From TrEMBL:
<comment type="similarity">
    <text>Belongs to the FliQ/MopD/SpaQ family.</text>
</comment>
<keyword id="KW-1003">Cell membrane</keyword>
<keyword id="KW-0472">Membrane</keyword>
<keyword id="KW-0812">Transmembrane</keyword>
<dbReference type="InterPro" id="IPR006305">
    <property type="entry name" value="FliQ"/>
</dbReference>
<keyword id="KW-0966">Cell projection</keyword>
<keyword id="KW-0969">Cilium</keyword>
<keyword id="KW-0282">Flagellum</keyword>
<dbReference type="InterPro" id="IPR002191">
    <property type="entry name" value="Bac_export_3"/>
</dbReference>
<keyword id="KW-1133">Transmembrane helix</keyword>
<feature type="transmembrane region" description="Helical">
    <location>
        <begin position="20"/>
        <end position="39"/>
    </location>
</feature>
<dbReference type="GO" id="GO:0005886">
    <property type="term" value="C:plasma membrane"/>
</dbReference>
<dbReference type="GO" id="GO:0009425">
    <property type="term" value="C:bacterial-type flagellum basal body"/>
</dbReference>
<keyword id="KW-0975">Bacterial flagellum</keyword>
<comment type="function">
    <text>Role in flagellar biosynthesis.</text>
</comment>
<dbReference type="Pfam" id="PF01313">
    <property type="entry name" value="Bac_export_3"/>
</dbReference>
<dbReference type="GO" id="GO:0044780">
    <property type="term" value="P:bacterial-type flagellum assembly"/>
</dbReference>
Length: 91
């Protein structure tokens, strides 16, 4: 296994991690921004007002995107297993 193969696997892993975390992070960001805006307008500074809607929105995002996330991880893992013989030098 050479350095370029390791860097390629690392790059693919980082891209996969970014793709898989994006729906959850973007959802939390948008809901957090909306709740923060509402709190600023109404001057209600309660911590649970931002936490509970964010938690619910993230749970909904996981339910909606969960199948896609699992299929992406299975595809990534299958690609790694398919590359294993060439990485070990036996192909």
């Amino acid at each position: 296994m050479n350095t370029s193969a390791v860097l390629d696997i690392l790059l693919q892993g980082l891209i996969a991690a970014a793709k898989l975390s994006a729906p959850v992070l973007v959802t939390a960001l948008v809901v957090g921004l909306a709740i923060s805006l509402v709190q600023s307008i109404t001057q209600l500074q309660e911590a649970t007002l931002s936490f509970v809607p964010k938690a619910v929105a993230v749970a909904v995002a996981l339910v909606v995107c969960g199948h896609w996330m699992i299929s992406e991880m299975v595809s990534f893992t299958n690609d790694l297993f398919a590359r294993l013989p060439s990485l070990l030098g036996s192909a």
